[in-house]
Design goal:
It contains 1 helix and 17 strands. By secondary structure, it is mainly beta. β10 and β11 form a beta hairpin.
Length: 203
């Protein structure tokens, strides 16, 4: 895995081959949230650093909102696990990569500067398949007996072992037991509300 990143510390600077570089920070936490690395864990509180190769884990009725140094926002619902697998961000360079692995749980992804860079690659590996995102705000999680992907802005290519679809703004798709994703369609308002509730913080 390539671990070339930029760390915010009074400005951006390049830091190469550092698997524990800071790639972001925590913006908001609800209940128990941890970061795990090589069987070691630490609690995540507001303003805590997010490090490369952290497994972000939320507990019961927990939420986490984190922001990466390029502005990408990650919001996790309860009992979620997300791994930062690859992060390459050079504001003045030509290489830009973000790769996430989601083990379980609902999450919201809001794209940052990486997606706007020429030749960038942003992929999210989920239990249902691979998401290739572009200029995107997307919700992903279990819903209605399957795995749902709802695109609020932008475009997402959803690829499973049995087929692929492209989902655009205002559309959603469902994947059941690794079958081909359903044809993209508008979701009912009630279904959208249930999806958003999974990543919403308590008042």
């Amino acid at each position: 895995m390539l671990a070339l990143t930029l760390v915010l510390a009074g400005g951006y600077f390049a830091q190469a081959a550092d698997p524990r570089a800071q790639v972001g920070d925590v913006k908001l936490v609800q209940n128990s949230v941890q970061a795990v690395f090589q069987k070691n864990s630490r609690p995540l509180l507001t303003a805590a650093p997010v490090l490369f190769e952290d497994m972000l884990k939320t507990g019961t009725d927990a939420r986490l909102k984190a922001q990466l140094v390029d502005g990408t926002e990650l919001t996790l619902g309860e009992k979620a696990e997300m791994f930062i697998d690859e992060f390459v961000y050079e504001p003045d360079g030509t290489e830009a990569v973000l790769s996430l692995k989601v083990v379980r749980g609902a999450f919201m992804f809001v794209s940052g500067k990486i997606e706007k860079m020429s030749g960038s690659r942003v992929n999210i590996e989920t239990p249902a398949g691979i998401l290739g995102v572009r200029g995107t705000t997307v919700w992903v999680g279990d819903i209605d007996g399957g795995y749902g992907i709802l695109v609020l802005d932008g475009s997402v290519a959803v690829t499973t072992p049995n087929g692929a679809v492209v989902v655009n703004t205002g559309q959603g798709t469902m994947v059941y037991d690794n079958e081909r994703p359903s044809l993209p369609s508008e979701w009912a308002e009630a279904k959208i509300d249930r999806a958003m509730a999974t990543i919403s913080f308590n008042d």
